[in-house]
Structures are given as C-alpha cells and as structure tokens.
Amino acid sequence: MHELAICQALISQVETIARQRSGQVRHVRVGIGPLSGVEPRLLEDAYPLACAGTCAEGSQLAIEAMNIRVRCRSCGAESEAAPNRLLCGACGDWHTDLLSGDELILLQVKLETQDDLVEAPNV
Amino acid sequence: MCETCGCSATQTSGKDAETVDVLGRLLDANDRTAAHNRDHFDSHGVVAFNLMSSPGAGKTALLEATIDALKADFRMGVIEGDLETDSDARRIRARGVPAVQITTGGACHLDARMVHDALHDLALSQLDIVFIENVGNLVCPASFDLGQHRNVVLLSATEGDDKPAKYPVMFRAADLVLLSKMDLAPVLDDFEPLRAEKAVRELANAAPVIPLSARKGFNLGPWEAWLRDEVARIRATQSATHEAREALHEHHHHHHQPAVA
C-alpha cells in the first residue's frame, strides 16, 4: 500500500509549515481525486501512523473528494465522468481532456500557535 | 507566500489558531527528484522507459527479447525493481547488458529517490536507453513519477481484457500498452484484444495497443518500431534543449567578456 508513503510525504510538508510558524498541528485538509490512485479510506488509516512522533500527532485529517470532469475535444462540452469511462457526457466521444479528478494535494493546515508567541508584541 | 512549495499560500491569523491555505502537491518532493532524474537522463542523451504491469505479466521476458533484438543498435541498461531477490537483474546481465537491482524490501512501488540512487551505479554516458522495470503491481507504481520519458504498461492475456477498466489510473498513464503472452490467447476464451483496446480508449487514452509474445517472438516488430520512433523523438527534444542551453550559455559568457579597447 503506497498510502503510507504518501502520508509520510504529506506529514513532511505539514511539519515544514508548522515549524515555520511554531505551531501545533490540529487539522489537515487534503484534496483527493478518484484518478490520483490514492484510496481515501486507506489514507485515513495510514494518517495516525505517519503522524506518530511528529508535530502533527493527534491532528485530524479531512479529505475533500474531488469530482472527475472532462472536456470533449470534439464537441467542447464539459461533463462529469466515471474513473473508467472518461467519455464525453454529451456526444460519447473518448477524445477528452481531464479537467479535474487526479488531484493529490494539500489544501489547508490549521495550527494552534503557542500562547507566548501570540502574546508577543507585534513587530 | 508559502516558502515551502512556492505556491500562493495565504494565512489568516486568529488569537491562538492559524489557518494556512496551501495548494501543494502531496508528492512534490518525489516529483522534484523525478525531474532531477529526467535532467540527468537528458544531459546524457539517454531515453528512459518505465515498464509497469502486474507480477508475472512478462516484463523481464520482454526485456530479454528486446535486448537481443536491439543490442546492435542501442546501448541499453536496466534498473530492476523487486520486493526481494536479484534474479531478474541476473537474467538481464546474462544478456550482456548492465543491470542495477533495487530491492524495495516490501515496498510496493519504485519512487524517484530509489531510481536516483540506482543511477549512481549505471554509467549513463555509455548508454542510449534505460529500461526501469517497476515492481509488479497495477496500483501503486502509477502514482510515482520516476523521471522516465515514457510509460509502457503490459497486460498479459491470462489477466483478462477487463483490466484497463479495473485499474484506470495505471492504464491512463500508459504511453503504450503491450498485450503480452498472446501465444496463450487461443486457449483462453476471455481475452479479446479489441475489448482490451476499447477499455483503454474509454480512459481517453490514445496509446497504441500492440499484441505480442516475447517468448514465441510473435509480433515484436511493432514494439521495436515504437521504441525506435520514441527514442528518435525524445532525442530530438533533448538535443534541441541542449543547443538552446549552449546558446544561452554562450550569450551569457559573451555578455561578461571584458570590454576590449
């Protein structure tokens, strides 16, 4: 299962952000498309394991499912599609370009910053 | 601005909470290493092919046949990815071609870092083509760019013609689909090459679909022709990029020449 490897890559990005802002990670939001090759459920399972011993330990993972959308090269129509039938919803042609659905992205990190840092006088 | 990934991140600060919006690819680190590998191939004029399939679809047998057929025209090298054992690498070396074994120790895919490390053991300046034989798996390898120029996906006749529909991520990434072990097709009643091709098209993939058999030497011609065409095509891009860089370098150099009175 490559979800653990992907989770570790995610945590290392999150750690960098947390380190820059000296914060404790509370929530992490990612966007996963059905054509990314990543199974959201397996990512959820792998997340606590990848977090253990990092500044993201105990944080919550939220997964935003992205829809598959294609644009037809023949008729120009945009439509939704299934992962294994990327056909134009209007004319049925297979000559389509993927508009969305293969995302594997970090969208947002919510941090709890330390009190002393927050109360420090603004520069 | 986010300093991590160069994206247009914004932040909204609360009293004791901070929300950081990012838009970074999760596999950004892998992708950067993959780009580095590709630069490495390009600067040596080497064309890299990533071979993917389920276990036992005949990747190594295909490479053996390909090495025999093209040995006179190309200098080839192979990176072998396996969970355990180096038996595939030994099979390749027996054909007189350098092979580097990556033993992933249980990992289900190769990543760009593993290929990068393997490249240190391969004399790229003495090669024209590098084949990367990925770990046998139709799922995980599809998500990891290795720095290859083209993806070749094998589908053996014994697996059934519905596999492209079952593994859309893998078959969507294919630049070429090889239907392997076609010598067995007559004894199988559930493998129809046209159905396999239709399933690839339904993934909006225009990749050529070539039926062949490496062991019986059946229909290897179109595969070899495809390889020759792609090597020529990629080489043309590599030399154009190289010339552009040289020109840039000369211009730069010229610019900094001390003025002569």
Elements of chain B, N to C (H/E):
EEHEHEHEHEEHHEHEH
General shape of chain B: globular
Percent of residues in helices of chain B comes to 25-40%
Span between termini of chain A? 47 Å
Q: Largest interface, and how many residues on either side? A: A-B, 42 and 42 residues
Q: What's the total number of strands of chain A? A: 6
- β-sheet strand percentage of chain B: 15-25%
Q: Order the strands across the largest sheet of chain A as they lie in space.
A: 2-1-6
The count of β-strands of chain B is 9
Mean pLDDT of chain B: 90
Helix and strand string of chain A, N-terminal first?
HEHEEEEEH
- Per DSSP, the total helix count of chain B is 8
What separation lies between the terminal Cα atoms of chain B? 47 Å
Q: Return residue spans of chain B where pLDDT drops below 50 for at least 5 consecutive residues.
A: 1-15, 256-261
| Poorly predicted runs of chain A | 116-123
User: Structural class of the helix and strand makeup of chain B?
Assistant: alpha/beta
Largest sheet of chain A: 3 strands, mixed
Radius of gyration of chain B: 22 Å
Helix share, percent of chain A? 25-40%
What does the radius of gyration of chain A come to?
Answer: 19 Å
Helices and strands, with pairings:
The complex is a heterodimer of chains A (123) and B (261).
Chain A: H1 3-21, E1 23-32, H2 40-51, E2 60-65, E3 69-72, E4 78-80, E5 96-100, E6 104-113, H3 115-119
Parallel strand pairs in A: 1-2
Antiparallel strand pairs in A: 1-6, 3-4, 3-5
Helix pairs in contact in A: 1-2
Chain B: E1 10-13, E2 17-25, H1 28-43, E3 47-52, H2 59-70, E4 76-82, H3 87-93, E5 99-103, H4 112-119, E6 129-133, E7 150-156, H5 163-166, H6 168-172, E8 176-180, H7 193-201, E9 209-211, H8 220-255
Parallel strand pairs in B: 3-6, 3-7, 4-5, 4-6, 7-8, 8-9
Antiparallel strand pairs in B: 1-2
Helix pairs in contact in B: 1-4
